[in-house]
Design goal:
With 348 residues, the chain is α/β, with parallel strands linked by helices. Helix content is 26%, strand content 23%. The chain is built from 12 helices and 15 strands. The radius of gyration is 20 Å and the shape is globular. Bound molecules: nicotinamide-adenine-dinucleotide and zinc ion (2 copies).
Length: 348
Amino acid sequence: MKALVFHGPGSKAWEEVPDATVQEPTDVVVRVDTTTICGTDLHILHGDVAAVTDGRILGHEAVGTITEVGDAVGGFSVGDRVLVPAITKCGRCEYCQRGMPSHCQTVGGIGWIFGHLIDGTQAELVRVPYADTSLYAVPEGVADEQAIFLADSLPTGYEVGVLAGRVRPGNTVAVVGAGAVGLGAILTTGLWGASRVIAVDTNKFRLTKALEFGATDAVEAGPGTATDVLGLTDGLGVDVSIEAVGFPETLLTAASLVRPGGTIANIGVHGIPVELPMQNMWIQNVTLTMGLVDTVSIPTLMKMVAGGRIPAEKMGTHSFTFDQMDQAYDVFKNAAANEALKVVITPA
Ligand SMILES: NC(=O)c1ccc[n+]([C@@H]2O[C@H](COP(=O)([O-])OP(=O)(O)OC[C@H]3O[C@@H](n4cnc5c(N)ncnc54)[C@H](O)[C@@H]3O)[C@@H](O)[C@H]2O)c1
Ligand SMILES: [Zn+2]
Ligand SMILES: [Zn+2]
């Protein structure tokens, strides 16, 4: 089979490798029909994720068809169309049982293993461990180019942004960063009845997209951001301020937009320490949440996509075939210049 193999920082190749096979009775093999690239893959190529070593197949998102099942797999059969999510779960460890498979103890102490601790989904075939508890059947009415965004960005925006931020009917919400994840939060915050959803980004194209995805207001990030957002929220700030970028300054922006009693929901992956103005924040009765996505909202989101309530397909702006993997990465890496959100990559 062919796969996108990591060869150390800055180096990757779409090359011939041995076929993925069933290794444990709880495994299945999935033929990848659609995959995509995540910002985390760019971090890996940058050399930021030390656990990813030379020879690892990249990618942690796929929709595909099962080609082989292990003896212990009961819930899936050859030919089934499935979503391979970013998080793998054993279903039995303490964290899985408390609904937090992001920290599944069985699969490696962390639920994100594809393209990280084991070979990933940017390949013709992928081995999926703990298939019964990790895979999701894709219903007939849901297209591959919709389901693929349920593997990571949509559940991340929803779980780590909207749910962790406890958006409630009538709430005002700010989303700092309108990339795929921030847009995932914007697409799903309306499900909880937010009255106002304010997108904040430096990029005009992303702000246009945010309005298309359900934001009520778009604010260009800059020195006037807090004043602009306060002006849209009776001078008080928002009930829920979601951070979806991952820089100290954007978390500070998110923190500056929240009203007393509100919640700051951090989604961004941070690489360096952030100094928060606790001398101002302690008296505001605010909550700060953060975390790795569990992807446990996938069944809910799948139903919303199937019912036409979440237009997930809007996330895909560019399409490529497997042999154009390099072009797909180039476009995604320069997403702003290319007016790209997520790329859809298929065999042919
Ligand atoms: N917590 C989790 O489980 C989890 C899962 C997946 C991704 N993430 C993280 O979520 C974050 C967003 O991911 P993404 O794929 O949407 O990234 P992205 O790069 O596509 O989007 C980031 C957006 O932030 C905007 N931005 C940059 N600087 C800004 C500034 N100063 N002010 C306002 N906006 C600014 C960019 O224009 C872009 O639209 C990343 O940090 C990613 O690593 C977290
Ligand atoms: Zn990802
Ligand atoms: Zn587990």
